[in-house]
Fold this protein.
Amino acid sequence: GDILLIAGKGHETYQIIGHLEADLCAVMDARRNQVYNARFQACGGILERLCPDRAIPVEELALELENRKKPQILVGDGAELCYNELTKRGLAVALAPPHLRLQSAWGVARGALELAWQGALVPAAALAPVYHRLSQAERERLAKVENSKGEEQHG
């Protein structure tokens, strides 16, 4: 028979902290003063998604959290980076404990179990990567194309 895989987004691996009654702000360092981010509200052991997965400037995330006016628990490899920036702005943020801060295989398995319970198993062939922004190589290639178009128009 077919091999079925259970796939979840990286941010969903934080369900381990879902027993808390709080807002969770998952942030992974995307460089260039951006983070890959998703936000969740944890209530009764269930995570409610507050926004889609995305790449967002730290400054824009800060404005969003200011408007939310709720304490945030930061998770992910960008948690300390965001903690430093957000506390400078006076926002109520806290770092998740070190053993719960980063994605882990256990967290992926826990997220997979949730998907299995929901009947959301998918064939391996149905899996596809999701990119939140172009790679640096692609951005540089597009810049060269734009520059050569500009040279052709002026040349």
The two ends are 61 Å apart (CA to CA). DSSP finds five helices and eight strands in the chain. Residues 136-154 form the longest helix (19 residues).
